[in-house]
Amino acid sequence: MIIWAVIGLVLIGFIGYLVGIYNGLVALRRNIDRNWSNIDVLLKQRYDEIGKLVQVCEGYMKYERETLEKLVSLRSSYLGTGSIADKSKIEGEIAGTLKTLFAVAENYPNLKANSNFLHLQNRISELENAIADRREFYNDSVTIFNTRIHQIPDIVIARFCSYTDQPLFEVLSNEREDRSISFNFPA
Description:
Elements: H1 2-58, H2 65-80, H3 84-105, H4 109-113, H5 115-148, H6 154-160
Helix pairs in contact: 1-2, 1-5, 2-3
């Protein structure tokens, strides 16, 4: 009788341990989703500001149509894609294009003096900083999750639940390079 009680307690303890692992992995997965949602909210705010920025710039930057069109195109591409990896790639391209736009704007004194442009530039810069912070939180969550699903005994539960590695929000290789900016004005 005592043996059955001990076996029962061990079995209950083992099941509780497995449930604890499962709940921990679920919590980590939900944390990743929450952190991505936080990034997505900031990116949506930035894309709303990009539309306003393009409107302000259009009147001043007659010769920079290509940069403005690329920004609008990337903005539309982001809103039309679903995967985190694709959104991360497009987000990196938008960040680079915004840097180019702000650098080119230096050559337009009237635009630089425009209060709407200055407000939007500051707002987008603030959002860029917040996005960078949220990327760090997201990547921390992903790293913890990806590590746990490959550790024993978590790997057993992770495979049973079909958990796979989640993508990190990475800086694109072209963002690590210096950008050359040229001002080509018609003669």
